[in-house]
């Protein structure tokens, strides 16, 4: 645009802005005064901001028409000297030729005439006068109108009502967790809270217009009254357990329930790091024992713990115990600490045949009352010395290795045979493999007794218990690993580290007639271990029996390959049988400390009196339980009905059911909030569907009943008659 004419659009825009302000300012002022009388300062600010914003937008919209097109039309209309050619003034000279260039030069000489023109639009006098008049009337009426409850009103009931009901304009919550958790305070705008138990929750709420009072209503608890501080309503309270709450104020629409979910402080968790098994034995020459425990907690473990030490002496009913406690200091970070203490076995008084039992007792940092947890016990046992075998050492060393044959020994011998295969003839290798197959068959038959199998060839083993070796399982030899020496055999001491045949960790067989040792059962009873016998030894759980059945199948595959001379093909089956046997051992293994029972003292005054007060009834619970979930089932069915004939759910009975079963429900707070929403908004179909879905997850599964057998059809009857 030409610089000489640039002031013309600016002047027009300024005139329009001032004209719009002259019309709108009185109206904004009148609205602010009226709002002050009705809603106070906040109402004045709201109305004033809205009025000024509308006035500014109107002025901007009116100034948008003053562009180059408007200027060209205005110059052509009010400047005759420009000869209706004002658009040539804005065209670049290099684009014009001939008469157009000549005309542009002539117009440029007449710019002074055009620059002196006044192109500003006229004032809107009528609109300004009307705005001022109406605004004055409104201001006068607002000034003369009596304030609500003021001295100018005749009665408080005659005071004018506010223009609108109060509504929540904003919320700010500050959650301060307990100091012992180590968590910082945080703020949020959401009304649903999730924080550690014991946290203090502070509310800061804004209303427009301000109500006379505001409270936080907690169903089943005392309401929290909010106090006004300036333009906010505040209140705070600490919560130990989860709850629901609602914001209430006079005139405020009924709000839905909000959640206060308090995360409980869990108790510490203690595990044993060393030793890796619950029961360990004193090794030869061992003088000290250092158990290591690890304690974890969500907010921190106390720096010191207590180690409970129990020492037992004696056997049978003559067991005596001594207990003492020792403080232990932990090492590590606050949430995970390790506690260890080196114990002198001689100082603790551990003797042969006794137990040393240690147990860690830890506390967390919860305030005001810490949680105390007793960790698992670890047992160090000093076994009794084996009886002497004077005069039988030579024979025992010759016979016992074969007598204690086990699945692991079969694997060791098979690998040793593979290593010597190149140095043996075919017949010798076949005989050795067949011998290993015979050993595998004997072991399979002994384990087969637990599954009800018949003994083959009259060489069945004795009725013994499931292996319960206390030693941990060793790494199994692999086919590709180095072969064990051919001469390696298991001794009585080494036998504790292997799986065994049936019976307390040992695979015992019967001696052949004419054996120089005579009755092997008597010899074993004298120089070995005693084992449980009888039908009770075969009462295993279904999972253990299934594992034993798989082990027998693997033994059979190993035996078949060994008898065919395929030693390498037999090793995978033998290794699998060993793993399954170890699994069966660990499934039924329980270690108990040899401590005397702690029975309650006998009340001699009640003996021979015939009084039965305080005796627990021996009646069994009925098989058919009362339908405890009837209110929930009825409500679930009612919520699923639709149409005008649908019966409303019994929400009161459902509320009582939730309160009585809150401990077992997956999310009692959500169900209670959904019940309240359905009660307040009965026409909300989404709310009904949500409550119905929550009830479905909370219902208990019905007790399965006995199904009657279907009647026999004619074909089935013919089949049964044929069987008879």
Structure report:
The protein is α+β, with helices and mostly antiparallel strands and 724 residues long. The protein contains 17 helices and 20 strands. It has helices at residues 7-63, 68-78, 99-108, 111-115, 125-144, 345-348, 393-403, 407-419, 426-448, 520-527, 542-563, 567-587, 630-640, 651-660, 668-680, 685-698, 714-723, and strands at residues 167-176, 186-188, 193-196, 200-208, 214-217, 224-229, 232-238, 243-248, 258-263, 269-274, 279-281, 288-289, 292-296, 304-313, 320-329, 331-332, 336-340, 343-344, 355-363, 372-381. The strands form four sheets. A nine-stranded mixed sheet has the order 2-1-4-7-6-5-8-9-3, with helices on one face. A five-stranded mixed sheet has the order 11-20-19-14-15, with no helix packed on it. Helix 9 runs antiparallel to helix 11. The chain is elongated, with a radius of gyration of 48 Å. The protein starts with 6 loop residues before the first helix and ends with a helix. The relative contact order is 0.06. The model is unreliable at 149-163, 387-404 and 457-538 (pLDDT under 50).
Number of helices: 17
Helix fraction by DSSP (H/I, runs of at least 4): 25-40%
Coarse shape = elongated
Extract low-pLDDT stretches.
Answer: 149-163, 387-404, 457-538
Q: Give the radius of gyration.
A: 48 Å
The separation of the N and C termini measures 118 Å
Tell me the β content: 15-25%
Report strand order across the widest sheet. 2-1-4-7-6-5-8-9-3
What is the β-strand count?
A: 20
- Provide the residue-averaged pLDDT: 76
Main structural class: alpha+beta
Q: Biggest sheet, open or closed, and with what strands and sense?
A: 9 strands, mixed
């Amino acid at each position: 645009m030409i610089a000489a004419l640039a002031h013309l659009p600016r002047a027009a825009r300024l005139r329009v802005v001032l004209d719009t302000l002259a019309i709108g300012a009185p109206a904004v002022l009148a609205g602010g005064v009226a709002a002050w009388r009705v809603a106070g300062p906040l109402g004045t600010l709201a109305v004033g901001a809205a009025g000024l914003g509308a006035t500014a937008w109107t002025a901007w919209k009116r100034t948008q028409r003053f562009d180059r097109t408007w200027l060209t039309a205005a110059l052509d209309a009010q400047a005759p000297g420009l000869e209706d050619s004002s658009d040539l003034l804005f065209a670049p000279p290099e684009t014009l030729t001939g008469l157009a260039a000549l005309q542009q030069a002539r117009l440029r000489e007449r710019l002074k005439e055009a620059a002196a023109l006044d192109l500003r639009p006229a004032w809107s006098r009528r609109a300004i006068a009307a705005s001022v008049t109406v605004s004055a009337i409104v201001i006068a009426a607002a000034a003369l109108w009596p304030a609500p409850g003021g001295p100018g009103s005749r009665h408080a009931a005659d005071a004018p009502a506010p223009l609108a009901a109060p509504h929540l304009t904003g919320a700010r919550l500050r959650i301060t967790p307990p100091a012992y958790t180590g968590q910082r305070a945080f703020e949020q705008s959401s009304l649903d809270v999730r924080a550690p138990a014991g946290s203090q929750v502070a509310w800061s709420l804004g209303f427009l217009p301000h109500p006379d009072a505001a409270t936080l209503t907690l169903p089943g608890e005392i309401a929290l009254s909010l106090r006004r501080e300036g333009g906010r309503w505040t209140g705070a309270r600490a919560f130990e357990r989860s709850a629901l709450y609602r914001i209430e104020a006079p005139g405020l629409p009924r709000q839905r329930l909000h959640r206060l979910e308090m995360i409980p402080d869990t108790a510490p968790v203690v595990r044993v790091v060393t030793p890796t098994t619950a029961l360990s034995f004193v090794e030869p020459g061992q003088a000290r024992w250092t158990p290591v425990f690890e304690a974890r907690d969500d907010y921190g473990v106390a720096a010191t713990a207590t180690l409970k030490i129990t020492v037992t002496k004696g056997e049978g009913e003559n067991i005596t115990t001594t207990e003492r406690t020792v403080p232990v200091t932990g090492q590590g970070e606050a949430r995970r600490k390790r506690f260890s203490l080196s114990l002198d076995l001689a100082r603790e008084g551990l003797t042969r045949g006794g137990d040393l039992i240690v147990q860690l007792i830890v506390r967390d940092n919860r305030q005001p009352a810490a949680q105390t947890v007793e960790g698992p016990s670890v047992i160090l046992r000093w076994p009794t010395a084996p009886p002497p075998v004077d005069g039988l050492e030579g024979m025992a060393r010759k016979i016992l290795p074969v007598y204690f044959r086990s699945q692991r020994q079969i694997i060791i011998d098979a690998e040793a045979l593979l290593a010597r295969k190149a140095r043996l003839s075919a017949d010798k290798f076949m005989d050795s493999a067949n011998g290993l197959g015979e050993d595998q068959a004997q072991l399979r038959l002994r384990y087969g007794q637990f599954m009800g199998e018949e003994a083959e060839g009259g060489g069945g083993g004795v009725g013994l218990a499931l292996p319960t070796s206390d030693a941990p399982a060793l790494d199994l030899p692999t086919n590709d690993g180095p072969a064990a020496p051919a001469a390696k055999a298991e001794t009585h001491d080494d036998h504790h580290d292997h799986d065994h045949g049936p019976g307390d960790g040992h695979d015992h067989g019967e001696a052949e007639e004419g054996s120089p040792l005579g009755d092997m059962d008597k010899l074993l009873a004298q120089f070995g271990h005693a084992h449980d016998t009888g039908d009770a030894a075969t009462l295993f759980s279904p999972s253990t029996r299934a594992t034993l059945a798989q082990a027998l199948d693997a033994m059979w595959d190993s035996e078949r390959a060994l008898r065919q001379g395929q030693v390498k093909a037999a090793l995978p089956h033998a290794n699998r049988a060993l793993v399954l046997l170890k699994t069966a051992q660990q499934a039924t293994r329980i270690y108990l400390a040899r401590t005397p029972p702690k029975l309650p003292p006998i009340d001699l005054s009640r003996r021979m009196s015939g009084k039965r007060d305080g005796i627990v009834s021996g009646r069994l619970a009925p098989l058919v339980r009362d339908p405890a979930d009837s209110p929930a089932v009825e409500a679930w069915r009612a919520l699923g009905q639709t149409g005008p004939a649908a019966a409303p759910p019994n929400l009161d009975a459902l509320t009582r059911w939730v309160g009585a079963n809150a401990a077992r429900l997956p999310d009692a707070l959500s169900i209670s909030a959904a019940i309240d929403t359905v009660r307040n908004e009965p026409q909300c179909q989404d709310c009904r569907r949500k409550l119905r879905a929550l009830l479905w997850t909370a219902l208990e599964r019905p007790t399965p009943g006995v199904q009657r057998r279907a009647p026999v059809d004619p074909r089935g009857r013919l089949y049964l008659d044929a069987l008879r």
